[in-house]
Specification:
Layout: H1 16-25, H2 34-39, H3 45-56, H4 73-93, H5 100-107, H6 117-123, H7 127-141, H8 146-149, H9 157-170, H10 180-190, H11 206-220, H12 225-253, H13 257-288, H14 293-318
Helix pairs in contact: 1-3, 3-4, 3-11, 6-12, 7-10, 7-11, 9-13, 10-13, 11-14, 12-13, 12-14
């Protein structure tokens, strides 16, 4: 049974904003006030979960929540306030580069002595680290490439054709068993994790929520199409070396063949994708709309910023043998001894 296709239940709220949004979705309460949004910590648990709840209505929704809530005017007003806080903070905190060429050049450079999460997992990670990493990443990987699809109607010419080609690969090239979200579910099975879509939302950290909310923010707004292309470029360019390290971590720990295959597949596929994205998606976009160059840079820098925050959270917890999750993982498969 393919549990990952089911609608998830609403998660446990993490403060007044997410409590208000969840209650409203259930038809059992009022939305939070705008002043509550203004007071909340922008990258914190409550604001990010509230925003995630709003965004998830545009994907698969929640069990028991009416599909009509997706375009509810009152909910959209609160979502806009949450988004404005998030976007303003990112513009203030994330910008590093002055040009697209400079931003891309930095992405293409691999540090000699890397100290990131994938280095840790390759060199000293244990199965419990890999399971936590997969559980948190499942919030995105079980809908892999979906947020980026929103940019397709907003592109044309070379950029559109190239973006569609890369997305087609992400969705298995027409084969259901090769869809990357399906491959990630298989990885989760090897690691003894539940593949139900949204299963680990309650367990995920605020930093993980931020990484997924960023994609939804960029994807849902035509005005941010350049930023979404920048985000996609960052993912595709940095994927091959990181995926290679994760594949090695899976092999070293005996995680299982499907767990290895997911990252081996990304080493191969994304090595091609990163060239297509740089040359044809970004190149085609800026050929047609050169004024979007600062937005592409913003997308690249914002992605690096939120991923660095996520990595710092994981490593801070793991280096003191502490779980990075809000709830411990159950041993859900005989594969994990």
């Amino acid at each position: 049974m393919e549990h990952h296709r089911e609608e998830p239940g609403l998660p446990t709220p993490r403060g007044p904003l997410s409590r208000g949004v969840a209650a409203y979705l259930e038809g059992a309460g009022r939305l939070p006030r705008l002043e509550d949004v203004a007071r909340a910590t922008v990258y914190g648990e409550d604001l990010q979960l509230a925003l995630y709840l709003c965004y998830e209505l545009h994907y698969r929704g929640f069990a028991g929540v009416s599909p009509d809530r997706e375009w509810d005017p009152d909910l959209l007003r609160i979502r806009a306030a949450l988004e404005q806080r998030f976007l303003s903070a990112l513009r203030a905190d994330a910008l590093v580069h002055d040009s697209v060429d400079e931003a891309l050049a930095d992405l293409l450079v691999e540090p000699v002595d890397g100290t990131g999460v994938t280095h840790f997992l390759r060199d000293e990670g244990e199965l419990w680290h890999l399971r936590e990493y997969a559980a948190q990443r499942s919030l995105y990987h079980l809908k892999e490439a979906d947020p980026h699809a929103w940019v397709l109607p907003r592109l044309w010419g070379r950029a559109k054709a190239a973006m569609a080609a890369v997305e087609f690969d992400e969705w298995g090239g027409g084969r259901a068993d090769r869809v990357h979200a399906r491959l990630f579910a298989d990885l989760m099975t090897d690691l003894g994790l539940d593949t139900t879509y949204g299963r680990y939302l309650d367990a995920a950290s605020a930093e993980a929520l931020v990484t997924v909310n960023l994609m939804s923010l960029f994807g849902l707004h035509r005005a941010l199409r350049g930023a979404l292309v920048g985000h996609f470029a960052t993912v595709e360019i940095t994927s091959p070396p990181g995926s290679r390290r994760l594949a090695e971590a899976m092999r070293r720990t005996g995680a299982g063949p499907a767990a290895e295959h997911f990252y081996d597949e990304h080493v191969e596929a994304d090595a091609v994708h990163e060239q297509v994205v740089r040359r044809d998606v970004i190149g085609g976009l800026l050929e047609e709309e050169p004024h979007l160059a600062p937005d592409v840079v913003f997308g690249i820098d914002a992605t690096g910023f939120v991923e660095d925050r996520f990595a710092s959270r994981l490593l801070a917890d793991w280096r003191v043998s502490r779980s990075s999750l809000h709830a411990p993982l159950a041993r859900e498969s005989a594969h994990i001894s």
